[in-house]
Amino acid sequence: MKEKFRIVDIRAYAVAASDTGGDYHRRSAGHWITDTLIANPMSHYPEYRASRTSWGIGTLGGVVVEIEAADGTVGVATGLGGIPCCYLIEKHFSRFVVGADARHTNRIWDQMHRASLFYGRRGLTITAISAVDLALWDLLGKLRGEPVHAMIGGAVRDTIPLYSTGPKAGATKGLGFWGAKVPLPEGPADGHAGMRRNVAFLRACRDEVGPDYPLMIDCYMSLTLTYAIELAHAVRDIPIHWIEEALSPDDVEGHRRLKDACPWMRFTTGEHEYTRYGFRPLIEARSVDIIQPDVMWVGGLTELMRIGAMAAAYDIPIVPHGSGAYSYHYVVTQPHTHFCEYVNMSATGDQLIPLFGDMFDGDPLPVDGKVTINDAPGFGLTLNRSAVTLERPFPP
Fold first, then answer.
1. Is the previous residue joined to 239 through a cis bond, with omega within 30 degrees of 0?
2. How does pLDDT run across 12-32, given as a tens digit for each residue?
3. Is the distance from CB of 157 to CB of 332 less than 8 angstroms?
4. 351 within 8 A of 166, measured Cβ to Cβ
5. How far apart are CA 243 and CA 223, in angstroms?
6. pLDDT over 60 (residue 63)
7. Is the dihedral of CA 158, 164, 169, 170 positive or negative?
8. Looking at per-residue confidence, does 52 or 268 come out higher?
9. 201 pLDDT more than 90
10. The pLDDT of residue 341
11. Residue 53: what pLDDT?
12. To the nearest 10°, the Cα dihedral for 235, 240, 242, 243?
């Protein structure tokens, strides 16, 4: 092992404030200030109907991971998981990182995953692995003086066209994005009247953006198979570019049946799926037209590349959910993935702000609906310690 690649320390911090870092949902003003309801898995319960923040979507908070090499170089990444994530990293995963060679990304990932199988495999455990993996790739890029995209195959285009997710389709179009994805307001618990209101909302969005502008629906795991099929038929004349995450991520068979029932509609999912093992049945059955792993949740860049290779054999594009620069560095290297997502986290959904708030210098913002990745080492993100409060709950 060359000495400069030897890892000497790993540090995990909980992000103490809202509006910054890797937890998209922890926002002081709520997750979009809008009169539009957002269908979600808790919509069946009236007391949690009006707001996703009311049922705790932002409870975990963000995490920052630093990995330090022998020469003092530090790789950094943010993610989801807060204090529980810090515990896993400091008390368990650190043994596979400290003393390792920073170039051994596959070995470190495999050891963390295998060692946590008895309590993990999905959810918080994989988000913790993701944060470590992204910090490791950032460190490796800084040690080599190369951007991450150059280390994983190199850019195949100069810029990445973006669609935007937000509550206002017209505002999204006005900001220059090629398409707009809006949240579905109501779900099965709202009955036939709710379906009529959904269709009216989507027709109004179509009127805002015109007949040819791509318009997508984010259903956020809120629908049943029957309701999703009815929705696909009800919006066929609007039209809709794709329906996203209609079903629970565990309903793999439901996704296949949904595509079989409505072959004219594009269906996408994957934001709440974990590791290549979760995506394998979706890919093999060709149940969806696009898969959307979140690199900060799915297992990091190391695992995203494995999922992408598997999907490429079926000509299924990978369009990662959110994750800003982490996603951009991957997408710009993929010949079969031609665009990416920008999640508009401004309170009103009509302003451009960095995905991670003021946590980083170098967090890229879209220009006319496109983003350009520079050649700064690692992910090109520099932690702005003066703008964020970090707490290390489990120091050694």
1. yes
2. 999 988 888 999 888 776 566
3. yes
4. no
5. 11
6. yes
7. negative
8. 268
9. yes
10. 98
11. 74
12. -30
* Domain locations in the chain as residue ranges: 3-23+60-145+385-391, 151-376
Query: How does strand 7-15 pair with strand 390-391?
Result: antiparallel
Report the relative pairing of strands 74-80 and 360-361 from DSSP bridges.
unpaired
pLDDT in tens, 124-140: 999 999 999 999 999 99
Reported as type and span, the H/E element at residue 82 is: helix 82-88
If we measure between CA atoms, which residue out of 192, 241, 195 comes closest to residue 215? 241
Query: Is residue 31 within 8 Å of 322, Cβ to Cβ?
Result: no
**Global confidence as pTM:** 0.97
Quick one: DSSP state of residue 318?
Answer: B
Contact present, 258 and 289 (Cβ < 8 Å): no
Backbone torsions φ then ψ of 12, nearest 5 degrees: -120, 125
Separation of CA 186 from chain center: 23
DSSP bridge partners of 25: none
Check for a shared fold between 3-23+60-145+385-391 and 151-376.
no
Listed residue (358, 362, 363) closest to 386, CA to CA: 358
Q: What average pLDDT does this structure show over 85-100?
A: 98
Fold topology of 3-23+60-145+385-391: Enolase-like; domain 1 (3.30.390)
DSSP SS3 for 180: strand
Which tens digit of pLDDT belongs to each residue from 320-375? Answer: 999 999 999 999 999 999 999 999 988 888 899 999 999 999 999 999 999 999 89
Q: Is 139 exposed, middle or buried (0-12, 13-18, 19+ CB in 10 A)?
A: buried
Strand partners, 371: 160
**252: CB partners within 8 A, 6+ apart:** 281, 282, 285, 287
Q: What percent of the chain has pLDDT over 70?
A: 98
Place of tokens 């050649």: 375
The whole-number average pLDDT for the span 298-306 is 98
- Packing angle of the helix pair 300-312, 324-331 (nearest 10 deg): 40
Question: Is residue 335 a contact partner of residue 156, using CB atoms and an 8 Å limit?
Answer: yes
- The CATH T-level fold of domain 151-376 is TIM Barrel (3.20.20)
Catalytically active residues, by annotation: 321
